[in-house]
Amino acid sequence: MSESIIQIQHLTKTFGEGDTAVHALEDINLDIKQGEIFGIIGLSGAGKSTLVRCINLLERPTSGTVIVDGKEMTALSEKELRLARRDVTMIFQSFNLLMQRTCLKNVCFPMELCGIPAAQAKKRAVELLEIVGLRDKADAYPSQLSGGQKQRVAIARALATDPKVLLCDEATSALDPTTTASILALLKDLNAKLGVTVVVITHQMSVIEEICSRVAILDGGVVAEQGDVEDIFSHPSTDAARRLVYPGGVSVAQYPAGTHAVRVAFNGGTAYQPLIASLAIDLGVKVNILGADTRNIDGKAFGTMLLGLPDDPNEAAKALSYIRSQPNVSAEEVEYHG
After folding, report:
1. Which of 96, 145, 192, 222 is the most exposed place for a label (fewest CB within 10 A)?
2. 3-class DSSP assignment, residue 224
3. Under CATH, which architecture does the 252-335 domain have?
4. What class, spelled out in words, does domain 4-244 have in CATH?
5. Residue 183: which of 164, 168, 203 has the closest Cα?
6. How far is Cα of residue 283 from the mean position of the Cα atoms in its chain?
7. CA-CA distance, 138 to 83, in Å (whole number)?
8. In angstroms, how far is CA 47 from the centroid of its own chain?
9. Most confident of 8-17, 253-262, 301-310
10. 240: enclosing H helix or E strand
11. Cα dihedral 180/182/184/188 (nearest 10)
């Protein structure tokens, strides 16, 4: 595993004092590796945006430490912090482009602030627009661009100082699904080609499963669960994780009292097994699909399926035994009594 580039230790952030104090983050501990794409996910109000702003000290933690590339950000002077932020840049949901500047001049802007000569900044900006696929939009203004194009310009601008970390705060939330997919593909490509560490803050599990290798789930200002994306999807161990992984909440409670069923969990098999067909062919047992919430991650199956079992106890027992014998599958009997 690569060395850590971001270490967050016992971070707490409180807004206000006394009875009106709001505890946005409590005792956050995260270790993000150099060169990975790390996801931070949670529902609205979970503390995601506050956490990402604490990483580059746009918000100063109430307590705890943030170490980025060996520098303890909380101990830096204002001048040192300005220099350190060149290595930790952000892209936002609202793009934050300067509307009176062309795309080229938007990308040049952070280099101007760093004192880079105009000719050198322009050359680098053209290169970055080429990288994000917008070389032909150099002289266009943000008002002439689509949402996806605006975000590509914002990404090019964020890369202008050759950062080591790219923070993406709900960067695709304002985009349609097709445009979101193209922006995620771009981030994945930049991560591979440039080696930049990407931290993705989102409320969308589809974003996490698309590009992240590891994820931390925030719930009420604390880290409810963290680990490899594949492990979280196959065995979500907290209610917060289950709400995000299986928002449909496949449940037997929506069916008539007395319904006898089995909840099947797919735990990362290499392909979806034709489980229902196999039961019918191999055992002659027929089951009903009552509900399903499944997905494919890197060619592996994850999720749950609720199957109605036969009324005959022997047939039901045969079906349950057969399901439990399958690889990368676990099964739990459930019955709704009303």
Report:
1. 192
2. strand
3. 2-Layer Sandwich (3.30)
4. alpha beta
5. 168
6. 41
7. 27
8. 14
9. 8-17
10. helix 239-245
11. 180
